[in-house]
Amino acid sequence: MIARDDDFPEIVPIFPLRDQVVFPYMVFPLFVGIEAMPVVEEAMGGNQVIGLFYCARGGETCRLENLAPVGTACRITQVFRLPEGGAKVMVEGLKRVRLGRAVQRVPFVIAQVEPLEETVERSLVSEALVQSVNAMLKIALSHGRPLPGDVMQMVDRIEDPGRLADLITVYLSVPPAVQQRVLEALHPLERLKDVYLLLSSEVQKQQVRGEIQTEVSKRIGKTQKEFLLREQMKQIQEELGDDDPRQGELGEFRRRIEKAGMPEPIRKIAEKELQRLERINAASPEYTVSRTYIEYLCAVPWSHGTEDQLDINRAQEILDEDHFDLKDVKDRILEYLAVRSLRKQSKGPILCFVGPPGVGKTSLGRSIARALGRKFIRIALGGMKDEAEIRGHRRTYIGALPGRIIQEICRAEANNPVFMLDEVDKIGQDFRGDPASALLEVLDPEQNNSFNDHYLDVAFDLSKVMFITTANILDPVPSALRDRMETIRLPGYSEEEKEQIAFRYLIPKQIEENGLIDYPVDFEAQAVQRIIGDYTREAGVRHLERQIAAVCRKLAREITQGRTPRVRVNADLVAELLGPRKFFAEVAGEQDRVGVATGLAWTETGGDILFVEASQMPGKKELTLTGSLGEVMQESARTALSFVRAHAREFGIDSGVFETCDLHIHVPAGSIPKDGPSAGVTIALAVISLLTGRPARRQVALTGELTLTGRILPIGGVKEKVLAAHRAGARIVLLPERNRAHVEELSEQVRKEMALRFVSSMEEVVETALLPASVRFRRGDLSDSYPPAAGPHA
């Protein structure tokens, strides 16, 4: 029904509500932002009446079309201005109103409203419904949903069904859309029925929540009751002498402890932990921690190991079958087997394979395990920074586990595996500890018979394990750790050795992996030599295998495309499939030059050649060193210059030249760091060549550490450096006299093709490496080709 009230305004400002619905006869605060203050000011300037309508849709601004059709006209009673802008407005609900035609839309809505008259109905039905709602409200309050005391007094005094429905709806936890539905219900009884249904639903929800809480409480009580009953049952069984723990999970643990073969002290610890586990409630977090600890104690192979196969002849056949050459490594393994056959209780050796990538360090560990008949374990140490990876975590930490050493031994189920620790030179270090220091106990044969993992916290015997570590270079490895290992160097392969490896291992492997078994591909020797010489430049054979795989893949593609299979691979076919050659002999094709000497370097990827250039210019006796040289190499350059100045007359150098010129010594490939003392002889030769005008023979490569008195000291990496000179095309290598014994490591073929000369003084070097001064230096030919190096130690 439309109300007829002459005092009620027909046109009022409209204020949209987002999260609430306002009912008549209610007083509540309304917080208004700065942007909505014009609406409040418009109402205050008139009769202080404003229309509040619920807006269910729309973006930041609510349009007239999105407003609910029925709202509440309210009178503004107070306005409190806020310091940050906006205001707190106290409003009092007057009447339900229906939204009419808009009079103004911008900057805010002003519209016509029609008041809706509500009938007051008094009947037996209304009285019964009011009583039912009051009873249901008391039931809801009994389930823990309290109302303010003044509200309860109002509910008891209200007899009007419509006003009672409005009041209860305000305090029910229902969405604004449901409140709007109650607001739009004009008939009081219909409105109160709707509220009664909402109140019943709320009571049902509260009853379900109460039942869930009761059930949880019952279950907790049941768990505690079961715990007490178990304790009583144990006591009764002990009194009757009928205690049988071999039932259930705990009985299984006891059987595993008996079968694990633990040493007596460790068995007592396991049994004590099992007794503690029996007393812990199964729902307690401590139960899982204790249970996991016992599982690991039972999983460790305390006394279970594989039987060593001590047939030395069979082991030698396996090692020769899997790897070509590597005589020193194979001899050391056979020596170990011989000792084991004579003395069963010998400790496992700690071997360290040092060599460039691709020479077979990791695969050699698998072959050793196969030869011994042992389990093989490999752990990659590269980038490891946490000490707990080795020793494990304390059990006090959440998610604690044993270290990798114990974990892998548990997986292998043997206490004497071949354990390979790969890339020991690439271990990191940070705030979590130093894993290299944690390895000191693991890799010490005198200590590792009582290795203590932080998680197990008991001693485990690692002396039966054969540990093998690998590294590219030993410099980053701490000296204390180096001292515990027996170092075996695996130098790079010569071209003849690479050819043998390719035919014996690489080519059959790649033919099988690329699906060419049914197509008998035949590699000629010239084809393999072309790949080795023109497409690879490495100490190992990893890149060689990639190039062979590339040839096989291209042949497989031709076959799948229906072309005639080319099963015979010669040198010309290699050039066709792999494209232009990638590497050249840096020395063989170059001219002899003044002030340019060919040195040798030793890097973590094998040997390499190193050119040293010297130049002079007018100046004031300054020495310039470039090429990213380390401190040791810079000292070698200064030592070489001092030696040349002290013996200038012996080499036919005018000593006055040092007073009027600057010297510049440069080692190309300046972006690569270089360090080491063994470039002293090469630097001195380059300076003597420059100052005497005698070209240095490019096919002569040299290495050695030079002292101020002219002595040439021995150097390391002889085999790697000689092989690098051989790959680069040099035919004469000058080595320190005290390195004469080290050339026995070279193959007979390399010693036949290379002229190895041993020198003990700089005079011998000059006599061999420099041409006479009459041979003029051709300045027009300045093209040089320098090999890549990776952090060389000259």
Automatic annotation (TrEMBL):
GO biological process: cellular response to heat; protein quality control for misfolded or incompletely synthesized proteins
Location relative to the cell: Cytoplasm
Binding-site list for ATP: G355, P356, P357, G358, V359, G360, K361, T362
SMART domains: AAA, LON
Catalytic activity: Hydrolysis of proteins in presence of ATP
Keywords annotated in UniProt: ATP-binding, Cytoplasm, Hydrolase, Nucleotide-binding, Protease, Serine protease, Stress response
Classification via SUPFAM superfamilies: P-loop containing nucleoside triphosphate hydrolases (SSF52540), PUA domain-like (SSF88697), Ribosomal protein S5 domain 2-like (SSF54211)
Lon N-terminal domain segment(s): 12-203
Record Pfam families: AAA, Lon_C, Lon_lid, LON_substr_bdg
Domain Lon proteolytic residue range list: 591-772
Enzyme Commission number, as recorded: 3.4.21.53
Induction / repression: By heat shock.
Domain of life (superkingdom): Bacteria
Subunit structure as annotated in this protein's UniProt entry: Homohexamer. Organized in a ring with a central cavity.
Family assignment from sequence similarity: Belongs to the peptidase S16 family.
Function comment: ATP-dependent serine protease that mediates the selective degradation of mutant and abnormal proteins as well as certain short-lived regulatory proteins. Required for cellular homeostasis and for survival from DNA damage and developmental changes induced by stress. Degrades polypeptides processively to yield small peptide fragments that are 5 to 10 amino acids long. Binds to DNA in a double-stranded, site-specific manner.
Protein name: Lon protease
